[in-house]
Design goal:
The complex is a heterodimer of chains A (120) and B (167).
Chain A lengths: L5 H26 L3 H27 L3 H30 L10 E2 H8 L6
Helix pairs in contact in A: 1-2, 2-3
Chain B lengths: L2 H21 L4 H18 L12 H30 L8 E6 L5 H13 L3 E7 L4 E6 L7 H20 L1
Antiparallel strand pairs in B: 1-3, 2-3
Helix pairs in contact in B: 1-2, 3-5, 4-5
The chains are: A mainly alpha (120), B mainly alpha (167).
């Protein structure tokens, strides 16, 4: 019977951890009320989950071409995902998408109304 | 040396590293292709990476490593918080957009701060007002609407390290 090396077991554990957080991210995407809250779940649990899966792949395969590619992908995901989340949130807010009923405060809208000439 | 050319060299070296990590192929054809592509990238888009002159000192490297560890820890902690909210049957959310004041001035530092805030779940940077140094942050569970409390809770955990690394 084929047995796993120690690093492969650790790799599998981290991959499972990543999949768990991906699951929470998707669950949040379905359950949370509005665009902004859904972005929270979608971009972050999923970022952490996907990065976890890729780091698990790196630990599983070690210093091989696959492992290096996984590390590079982790870096690029961590760099690009917050930027896209920010762009979507700002675009949604600027095009006037309503926030959920539970929302208690919106200082951004207040400040935008105070300076209507501001146009960036 | 002019700053633009320094920046181009940095971009060239970085592109070479990425190329060799992706291909992991040290045949002559691959090396030549990598160098040509990195040079083209550096010539056309090289001058935008480094835009201000800064002295190098070793402390910054340690602070960068410390920052990565700190960011990872915050991400882990906050991920569990959002996971708890998502699986809770009543969805205990109290969302809102709050102001966060920052002391940072450089573009790179502000970008890193905004990205770090977005990466830690529960907070999402919507916009930055650079003149007044205010970040608008969407917070999934608003603890207080006061600008001081939100700055303390969201911004200052990264600000101290970023000040050393970038300012």
């Amino acid at each position: 019977m084929h047995s796993l090396a120690f690093n492969q077991i650790i790799g599998y554990v981290i991959i499972c951890f990543g999949i768990l957080f991906d699951f929470f991210g998707v669950l949040g995407l379905l359950r949370l009320p509005d665009v902004y809250n859904r972005l929270q779940a979608a971009t972050k649990c999923v970022t952490f989950g996907s990065a976890g899966i890729l780091i698990g792949v790196f630990i599983y395969s070690g210093f091989t071409p696959t492992g290096f590619k996984a590390i590079l992908c982790t870096v690029f995901i961590l760099l690009t995902s917050p930027v896209s989340a920010h762009a979507i949130a700002k675009a949604a807010h600027n095009s006037g998408i309503e926030m959920a009923e539970e929302t208690i405060v919106d200082h951004y809208l207040e400040d935008m109304n105070n300076e209507p000439t501001e146009d960036k | 040396m002019k700053l633009e050319n320094k920046s181009r060299i940095a971009v060239f070296v970085l592109s070479c590293i990425v190329w060799f990590l992706i291909t992991l192929n040290f045949s002559l054809a691959s090396i030549v292709a990598g160098i040509i592509l990195s040079a083209v990238t550096a010539i056309f888009a090289g001058e935008i990476l480094i835009i201000t002159e800064r002295k190098f000192h070793l402390g910054r490297v340690f602070y960068t490593i410390g920052y990565i560890i700190k960011l990872f820890w915050e991400m882990l902690k906050a991920n569990f918080h959002v996971a708890y909210i998502v699986v809770h049957p009543k969805l205990p959310v109290k969302p809102g957009i709050v102001r966060v004041k920052t002391k940072l001035t450089r573009d790179s530092a502000l970008t890193m701060l905004a990205n770090s805030i977005t990466l830690t779940p529960g907070t999402l940077t919507v916009d930055i007002n650079k003149d007044e140094k205010i970040l608008y942050v969407h917070w999934i569970y608003v603890k207080s609407q006061d600008i001081k409390v939100s700055t303390e809770e969201i911004g200052s955990r990264f600000e101290k390290i970023l000040e050393v690394v970038f300012e």
